[in-house]
């Protein structure tokens, strides 16, 4: 009968346990010196070796020929414990035996001496599932058990174990296994099972295991059963319904370039190929997380299969954008449990990631500002709407000859109102750095993005950027600080406001009055009263 790999290759000694050196060294030393505690509590996530270490410890304390703290696995007691025939070593599942009656029966039975082993060992798995009354019944005997009794408790949820139980046990925390350790163990098992496991496939399986060796072995078992030849990265993606790192990178690149059509096309192709929606969004979230780690803490960043593509993605995306993507993807994944149309939810999520301006929440605005800051910092010009040039009017045909009209000189910004000092704008923007946040300052000081007009006690900053007017023009406190800075430079009190250049197209005698009148009529000018 075929035996699953995680059962077949369960560790039999402390030396075979992977990734828990601090725990196994301590337990082996206690067995070797005979300084054993009466109760142990093993805690950690799934697949990290808690139950395996509990069985090894039960064999080690009853082994007739221990070898350096490890069980020999050859004596009568070791073989009996391995086969489950030893009546003195009991494994209890607290999930199904969680009542007070079960604990009372255990307590009454524990007083009897072992029949064939040295110690009577009780391994209580998932101990956090015991009821409150069962914990109370267990409390006394676990505090002062008979000399021949040893308790080993295991749990994945330490916070549910009462403090009274914790204080009476030696606690050992099993940490998540590193991906490198899992990959090495998978390669070792594949070699013994004559499975052709490629290195990049082992790395992918180790990352999917999420710190649990049992999960990694189960995934390897599944992929090896489905593949007639070598277990490659493509085989793993096909068997587990994953999009793959290359396709996920292409999808994230389309999102980074705000190309919703390309992103939806890639998503549609993957969906048609039978890829799991949760797995696809999970891969996208993991890639965004890896890029965020690479930008904020390069030393902790994982290795990428396509380093060139990942480098390009890191340049396209700011940390604020990556944070927004991860949060939006996680919210979509959490809503899948109650969703009636997962595909629609996923497509809406992708469209919002491509175009954050579709939503007006704080996170989408932060992502847009982050993208703008990245463009300004890298020297990439911000895209602006093209200017509409009015079509030239044809001259009216008249019979009488007319004088040639003199060319109308183009008005310069500083000539439409009062004269500004020639060095006003450089000094003004330099002093703004002390009162304006960097993101808003970058919008104001961007090349040719703002044109100053001065008329009496008004300093009007003309810009076509809606983002600038929304972020600065509607912030009264910020406008007050800008007005104070301008007043200090000009030596008189002025008020700062923002307007659109389109307002200057209206024809009046005074161009600046035209600007003010048109702006007031259409609510494009925001002034500090």
Commentary on this structure:
The protein has 529 residues and is of the alpha/beta class. It has four domains: 5-174, P-loop containing nucleotide triphosphate hydrolases (Rossmann fold, 3-Layer(aba) Sandwich); 179-240, Helicase, Ruva Protein, domain 3, CATH 1.10.8.60; 246-374, Zinc Finger, Delta Prime, domain 3; 414-522, 2-Layer Sandwich (GMP Synthetase, Chain A, domain 3). Helices cover 50% and strands 8% of the residues. The protein has helices spanning 5-8, 21-33, 50-62, 76-83, 100-110, 132-143, 163-166, 179-192, 199-209, 213-226, 233-240, 245-256, 260-272, 277-296, 307-316, 319-335, 342-354, 362-378, 424-432, 438-445, 466-473, 476-490, 511-522, and strands at residues 39-44, 89-93, 120-125, 149-155, 170-174, 451-455, 458-462, 495-499. Strands 2-3-4-1-5 form a five-stranded parallel β-sheet, with helices on one face. A three-stranded mixed β-sheet has the order 6-7-8. The radius of gyration is 36 Å and the shape is elongated. The model is unreliable at 384-388, 402-416 and 502-529 (pLDDT under 50).
